[in-house]
Amino acid sequence: QVQLVESGGGSVQAGGSLRLSCAASGGTFSSYAMGWFRQAPGKEREFVAAIGQSGGSVYYADSAKGRFTISRDNAKNTVYLQMNTLKPEDTAVYYCAADFRYTKYAQVKPHLGIDYWGKGTLVTVSS
After folding, report:
1. What pLDDT digit, counting tens, does each position of 64-91 carry?
2. CA 8, CA 6: separation in Å to the nearest integer?
3. Which residues are CB-neighbours of 78 under 8 A, at least 6 positions away?
């Protein structure tokens, strides 16, 4: 059983930056492809970014391309999401995910059937 704990959320003005972290425990971190999702009030959870087990492959939602960077440190069992040039529409609870299948993140509605989830961290971007 894998436990995921997100941190780094907060309030920031539009144009600002935040770095989210997700610390994993209870499993072999390097066995999992890791991802970030977000969910705004009243909306479905949506994919943001994913990274393969070794960190050599990354995949982004169109909304994240050019502004967000996902990375991982397998020695620290941690995945990161650097978010730059934040916009009010980025406001959401951000969730860390772990799944054995990197290809899972490219599927339609990838949030369905994810192996493990964190509890989320709130990001609020004001205009």
Report:
1. 999 999 999 999 999 999 999 999 999 9
2. 7
3. 21, 22, 23, 24, 72
Q: Give the residues across from 70 on adjacent strands.
A: 81
Per-residue pLDDT tens over the stretch 19-66? 999 999 998 999 999 999 999 999 999 999 999 999 999 999 999 999
**Parallel, antiparallel, or unpaired for β 78-83 and 68-73?**
antiparallel
pLDDT of residue 80: 98
Structure tokens at 108: 């339609």
Q: How many angstroms separate the CA atoms of 29 and 53, rounded?
A: 8
In angstroms, how far is CA 35 from the centroid of its own chain? 5
Hunting for tokens 């502004």 — which residue is that? 67
Question: What amino acid occupies position 9?
Answer: G
The residue whose two tokens read 């070794």 is 54
Instruction: Give the CA distances from residue 75 to residues 46, 79, 91, 99, in Å, rounded to whole numbers and listed in that order.
Output: 28, 11, 30, 18
Q: Is 105 helix (H, G, I), strand (E, B) or coil?
A: helix
Rounded Cα distance, 60 and 119, in Å: 21
